[in-house]
Amino acid sequence: VWGTAEPGSRVKVTLDGEPVFAAADEQGRWKTQLPAHPAAEGLTMTLEADGSELVFTDVSVGEVWIAGGQSNMEFYLGYEMHFEEVKNAFSSTKVRFFDVPEAACEEMLRDRAYPNEGFWRSATKADLPYFSAVGFYFARNLQEDLGVPVGIIGCNWGGTPASAWMDPEKLTGTAGEVWIREYERATADVDMNQFVETFRRNPANDRTNMLKNRFNDEIMRVGFSREKQKLAVTVMSPPPFYYERRPGGLYETMLLKIVPYSIRGVIWYQGETDGDFHPEAYTEVFSAMIQNWRDLWGENFPFLFTQLAPFEEWLTCFGTNYGIVRECQDTVSRQVPNTWMATTGDVGMQWDIHPKDKQPVGERLAFLARGHVYGESLLCDAPEAVSAVRDGDSVTVTFRHAQGLQIEGAELQAVSAEGDCSVALTDAEVRQDTLVIHGAGDADVIALGAAMYYEVNLYNAAHIPAKPFRLRVE
User: Fold this and answer.
1) Lowest-pLDDT range, 141-155, 163-177, 182-196, 307-321?
2) Alpha carbon separation from 421 to 14, 439, 445, 462 (Å, rounded)
3) With contact defined as beta carbons under 8 Å apart, do 414 and 470 qualify?
4) Measured at the alpha carbon of residue 73, what is the angle toward residues 178 and 292, in degrees to the nearest 5?
5) How far does Cα 223 stand from its chain's mean position?
6) Which residue of 24, 111, 136, 193 could cross-link 9, Cys pair, CB 3.0 to 4.6 Å?
7) Residue from 190, 150, 154, 184 nearest 168 by CA
8) 304 bridge partner residues
9) How far apart are CA 461 and CA 448, in angstroms?
10) Lowest mean pLDDT among 99-113, 164-178, 207-221, 355-369
């Protein structure tokens, strides 16, 4: 718990009858840590200093996770395809959500009120539309399983690269330096004071009520038709650089605002913008960003993230390089300790970068948390191909995490071959934890998810789709 008071003040914080104390420094800043407390609801926290008192009621103690990333994490439950069903069937104060105000510069925080961000919401009919859809489904699944309150801190902004969410110094010496060099070139002849003044006064940069933004509402709720997308592209005139995309920008104006709030871990959905610009740098940038966040909190907390969904084209975004980002994400999940990746090969949309079905995404992240963080014995990882062996006219692909491996539908989808057999392969059968692909005997390489847009229909018993793979046939 932290805040401000008169410099030198003695601050008393009491939660559930247990007081702790802090002293405000010369700038009036103070911070203290509450003692461990069992999960609970309906508590009261009192803060006292200099004869003044603040009382917070309806305080919960439970599991807290950060929901970070770009627009697919920001994507409101109010836009999600199951919203009406959720709104009418679910209401609970055990699931809560806090959105960090979206400000690209400190001036925006001073200029504007943020009536819809910066405070805790409960999962009631009035507040549910404002929840991150992925964050909500993650929290609901976790809360129902653990039986304790779950709070989500939304710290996200659409269209932002990973480099915007980290200390730019951490990009030095990595492939991510390209973001710094690019930003320096773009701003070399820019009067930054004038730019910030123009930026902060531009109504298009007002992020205080995104549910009331007509443009945002249209592209998120139903998505632009292909014809409307082409029209929109012709009238879009982006500036030479995006202020919220600058290296370290949102790290400074959003992430640092919530350090060192006690968290269990992070769920993350991001990478689309990196795919549009510098996909080759993503492994190093994303790995450095995760370490940067862990250093800030001083702990190696779990970091669960979502692999990019299949996608081809939307406005000025193209899925051309998303396969590279998916490979980078898979590499990070294998190389960076205490990280796990959820797959989305069955819930993408070919002409929309914002898939409307976020329930599987949030629940798969929750499965990973339950299995790897909370120690529950359940199948939570995606089927992962480990080898491809030729057997006459067939190729046998062996998987791990493949209990109950099954093909949904009459034919296998999204699998292709390279070599003399450069065709999509649909004739296949499952034998325990292996997939036998017929007619692939001449293939040099077998791949799943090689196209920009594809639909995986190979699942394990937990209905988790197989990860994209590319294997040389032995």
Assistant:
1) 182-196
2) 70, 8, 9, 32
3) no
4) 45
5) 20
6) 24
7) 184
8) 267, 340
9) 19
10) 207-221
Instruction: State the CB neighbour count (10 A cutoff) for residue 308.
Output: 26
> Averaged over 422-444, what is the pLDDT?
89
Q: What tokens were used for 363? A: 């629940």
Would you tell me how many other CB atoms lie within 10 Å of the CB of residue 184? 11
Report the predicted TM-score, pTM, of the whole model to 2 decimal places: 0.94
User: Cis ω on the peptide bond leading into residue 260 (within 30° of 0)?
Assistant: yes
Cα separation, 216 vs 209, whole angstroms: 10
Q: Is the pLDDT of residue 207 over 60?
A: yes
Helix 322-335 to helix 282-297 angle, to the nearest 10 degrees? 40
Instruction: Categorise residue 449: left if φ over 0, alpha if ψ from -120 to 50, beta otherwise.
Output: left
pLDDT computed for residue 231 by the predictor: 67
Torsion angle in degrees (nearest 10) through CA of 182, 185, 186, 189: 170
Residues in the chain: 474
- The CA distance from 243 to 195, in Å, is 9
Residue found under tokens 């394990």: 460
CA–CA dist 245, 243 (Å, integer): 5
pLDDT tens, position by position, 355-399? 999 999 999 999 999 999 999 999 999 999 999 999 999 999 999
With beta carbons less than 8 A apart as the criterion, state whether 375 and 411 touch: no
Q: Check residue 46 and give its pLDDT.
A: 97
Which pLDDT belongs to residue 196?
85
In angstroms, rounded to a whole number, what is the distance separating the alpha carbons of residues 49 and 208?
32
Smallest Cα–Cα separation from 456: which of 395, 405, 400?
A: 405
3-state secondary structure the chain: CEEECCCCCEEEEEECCEEEEEECCCCCEEECCCCCCCCEEEEEEEEEECCEEEEEEEEEECEEEEEEECHHHHCEHHHCCCHHHHHHHCCEEEEEEEECCCCCCHHHHHHCCCCCCCCEEEECCCCHHHCEHHHHHHHHHHHHHHCCCEEEEEEECCCCCHHHHCCHHHHCCCCCHHHHHHHHHHHCCCCHHHHHHHHHHCHHHCCCCHHHCHHHHHHHHCCCCHHHHHHHHHHCCCCCCCHHHCCCHHHHHCHHHCCCCCCCEEEEECCHHHHHHCHHHHHHHHHHHHHHHHHHHCCCCCEEEECCCCCCEECCEEHHHHHHHHHHHHHHHHHCCCEEEECCCCCCCCCCCCCCCCHHHHHHHHHHHHHHHCCCCCCCCCCEEEEEEEECCEEEEEEECCCCCEECCCCCCCEEEEECCCCECCCEEEECCEEEEECCCCEEEEEECCCCCCCCCEECCCCCECCCEEEECC
